Amino acid sequence: MAYDFDTPIQRKGSDCIKFDGAAEQGLSPDLLPLWVADMDFRMAPEILAALHSRVDHGIFGYTATLRGYAQAVDAWMHDNYGWLVAPEQIVMTSGVVNALAMAVRAFTRPGDGVIIQQPVYHPFASVVTGNGRVLMNTPLLLDEATSHYHMDFDALEQAAAQPNTKLMLLCNPHNPVGRAWTRPELQRVLDICLANDVIVVSDEIHMDFIRPGHEHVSLGTFGPEVLQRCAICTSASKTFNLAALQCANTVIPNESLRRAFKREISACGCHGPNLLGMAATQAAYEHGAPWLRELKEYLEGNWTLLDDTLRELHERSGVALTLVPAQSTYLAWVDCRGLGMDASELERFIQDEAGLWLDCGHEFGPEGTGFVRINLATQRAFLQRALDQLCDAVYRRLK
Ligand SMILES: Cc1ncc(COP(=O)(O)O)c(C=O)c1O
Known about the structure:
The protein is α/β, with parallel strands linked by helices.
């Protein structure tokens, strides 16, 4: 491998929330953190070089969109996903969650219904309720025999048909259940939403972490008529570990929706993009592909380690912690209902007995109760240590 993903990098003491946020949350600083979705890997050297060059210039006044920025975004989307992005349709925000909130505010009114599919990344609910809109949850269905999730299209149809429903927030690929939605599934979502005049906002931030044998189908590859009723949120921040640089791109083909979205951004007093975020994003899309290829290979090794560990745990202890088959993301969704604990017992077990800091499933909606999300984007040795602690805690329980 040309890039090093194994050497540990000291994050503790760097003011990152993953390692240094424990005290603020009343947790022990000794817990091994595998929660928030960022990575313990240093960014690609090619991106670091672009940032150094900007920093060395030494002037950080108001910036225009960088020359070549939109072309870099377009080339990435086109070359990887067959999606042609028109530069004028890109609207930058400080992040994808910010874009989701702007979309809720721009495309709906207080009291309108917004569809989500829990369990889902928790800001999907908070940007709806926090803005005084009505949450229309159409939970994903879990096939207990295969641990596969799929959409409940009947529930979706019912929710979309409500007269006050105006928007759907789609997580594609889906965090935390790891589904990469197929074209027929997405077509059905679009058919239902468009028939009921419901706008679809697709959060595609995890698009670059599709696992072997699967593909990312961007909403951007559907026909121009469909795209008139859609917005697609993207960012290089998950893929290249740039979250703190606060830069995301939302593509809104319809001019009047785009205008409404921009109006909301400016009503919130946000103006001008983030220079370092843009520089990093551009460098990532222009030069980051080889690093990403190796990263994904490394992450596959971590998936295998988790899979093997849980299988061995089951064989030796009889306790089934079941890994939901993930098609995308670096976030493992593990069914811990075999432990027979309620949500707070499970959280206590993970923290007090296993010494881990994970995201417990109920944070993603009630349907996630009994599950945990494990962030695999870390050095293999660290993951091994964390999984050893988890298994030891289960064995101790059985003694
Ligand atoms: C589905 C999804 N959307 C958005 C975000 C956060 O994006 P941002 O940091 O750009 O707001 C995450 C982070 O985990 C996520 O999983």
